[in-house]
User: Fold this.
Amino acid sequence: MISVQGKGVSTGVACGPLYFYQRAKTTLRRYTVEDTASEWQRFKDAQQKCIEQLGELAEKAREEAGDDAAMLFETHQLMAEDLDYEDAIQALILEEANNAEAAVTDTAAQFADMFASMDDSYMQARAADVKDVSDRILNILYGVVQGGIDSDVPVILAADDLAPSETIQLDKTKILAFVTEGGSSSSHTAILARTMGIPAIVGVGDQMKAEFEGRTAIVDGQTGQVFVDPDEDTTTHLMEKRRKLLEYQKMLEELKGKENVTLDGQQIRVYCNIGSPEDVHAVLSNDAGGVGLFRSEFLYLNCDDYPTEDYQFEAYKQVLSEMGNKEVIIRTLDIGADKQIGYFELPKEENPALGNRALRICLNRPEIFRTQLRALFRASAYGHLGIMFPMVTSVWEVREAKKMCNQVKEELKAEGIPYDEHVQIGIMVETPAAAVMSDRLAKEVDFFSCGTNDLTQYTLACDRQNNDLGRFFNPHHPAVLRLLKMVCDNAHKNGIWVGICGELGADLELTETFLSIGIDELSVSPRSVLPVRKKVRETTVSDVKDSILEDLLGEGNQF
Ligand code: PEP
Ligand code: MG
Assistant:
């Protein structure tokens, strides 16, 4: 048995075969072929497979997000069988005896250059399409399963690290657990794992060896341990732990339908964080009161090009309709930093976490923001929507964003398109600037939602992605908690509500603190709803409040 230690970031015990995540190879092999006819056939087979894959993706997109989404893949299908494109490849293989990979690569470059040099912006955008299609054909030729899991049975997925865009595209039914070399607890892959209820371990470094592929392993997402070829004792022990976890889960089930109320009568709303419309099922099955954070950028991460207004509208409408009367707070696009999207073509930055991200991108590129706001307001007619802006630092940003909301509402009104006049507008408080300015900001909005992942990162000057910072990245730091209290006081003085949607919201060691400082809402991963409810129902706030506040604000705190 080999034991590997990492950091558990999503609890649960899973047992199954190890599978190493595969990325497309990027080194091109060039050689002269002798049998050009069979090389041509090799290309034709790969082209056919590519067309089939795109057809399946188009169908999936149509089911999940409507016709506009499907069209992207259908356009790619047409490109894959375009006669000029095919003729160019054919000439390179049959006449010049190039191997198929070299022929596809050279033709893709030639076509992409040609499109890019055109005046028309629509045609320029086709350069990215031809590259995408060619990459898909190349992956098939190389035999690489791009980002997929080529296994008939569910697996424990090992990877160096996974970008959010890679995680979101995985077939979740095939994943028993994640184990990654890098990453940290508040990285987005860890967040996604918790949302999906999949055990996850990050930061195992180089302990996972390629030769473990296919061997049986047990993952304990609580202790951060992976056992490859586990012995009998370990297997028995962990299977028992799994049984107990399931039992605990069953006990939590009994809290469904009950209120989030303390023993002395203080209520708190417990909502969920989600990343896609498919997560609504988990929100409802865990009996959450609403959605406190829909990370809308995952829609963008899931697309090869800017998602259209209709595509977004369908996704938001789906979430709102399925949630019925329950409140749904959708956060506007928050890309940049660790969430990079190729087609945005953001310039490389020295310090992306401090760079062009989130609301800053939206205010600088209003056409992107406007498309999203139109989709959001159109969807507002189908449920109880709140909209919030991420990464706010100044009052003027909020005013500018609200002005765009008003313009969009005017447009919709003029076009006779229905929307809800009473959509609440809020901001995320996730920068120290927003916390310190919360007295002013509270006058501009209907609610605050504290993003403690970024608030901790920026307050403590600790990169949330860097697992090596260990004890320095401490969201329990009084500097963070004092800011939360300040935000809470300023919100209430101005008659607005305040929630927490960062990962800290689910930290049961702090539930009493949040109740004591008066937080109104906690938005957590679906799996954390019932544990938080249990903790709330066991608390008597009046018993703990004075000592918690003294500890937080008094002189005794020697942190
Ligand atoms: C946060 O920063 O706490 C937050 C909820 O947003 P994200 O994790 O997506 O940056
Ligand atoms: Mg954030």
